[in-house]
């Protein structure tokens, strides 16, 4: 078994209202120096050795992200 992490983030040109809410709240909570926040999703998958990188990419593209507005990255974790 292997662990795979898929990170999904809004594309740079897409407005991120959740990230904007966080960056707006930080100064009110006493935190300074943060100028931007982007909020995304993280998926951790346990896969067996028969699952190759091409199949992982298909999983990410077809189920885990909206490719119109999100970018994704698959990372195998040891």
Tell me what you see in this structure.
The protein is α+β, with helices and mostly antiparallel strands and 78 residues long. The protein has a single domain, classed as Mth169, Chain: A (2-Layer Sandwich), CATH 3.30.1280.10. Helix content is 31%, strand content 31%. It contains 2 helices and 3 strands. A 3-stranded antiparallel beta sheet has the order 2-1-3, covered by helices on one side. It is elongated. The termini are close together. The model has no long low-confidence stretch (mean pLDDT 96).
Adjacency order of strands in the biggest sheet: 2-1-3
- How many whole angstroms does the radius of gyration measure? 16 Å
- Unreliable stretches (pLDDT < 50, length at least 5) are none
List the quaternary state of the chains: single chain
Largest sheet: 3 strands, antiparallel
Summarize the structure.
With about 80 residues, this protein is an alpha+beta fold. It has helices at about 15-30, 55-65, and strands at about 1-10, 40-45, 70-75.
Which features characterize this protein?
alpha+beta, 2 helices, ATP-binding, three-stranded antiparallel sheet, 78 residues, Phosphoribosylformylglycinamidine synthase subunit PurS, Mth169, Chain: A, ATP binding, ligase
Note the topology.
Layout: E1 2-10, H1 17-28, E2 41-47, H2 53-64, E3 70-77
Antiparallel strand pairs: 1-2, 1-3
């Amino acid at each position: 078994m292997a662990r795979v992490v898929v990170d999904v983030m809004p594309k740079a040109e897409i407005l991120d209202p959740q990230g904007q809410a966080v960056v707006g709240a930080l100064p009110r909570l006493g935190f300074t120096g943060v100028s931007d926040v982007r909020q995304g999703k993280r998926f951790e998958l346990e896969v067996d050795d028969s699952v190759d990188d091409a199949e992982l990419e298909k999983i990410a593209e077809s189920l885990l992200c909206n490719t119109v507005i999100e970018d994704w990255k698959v990372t195998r974790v040891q």
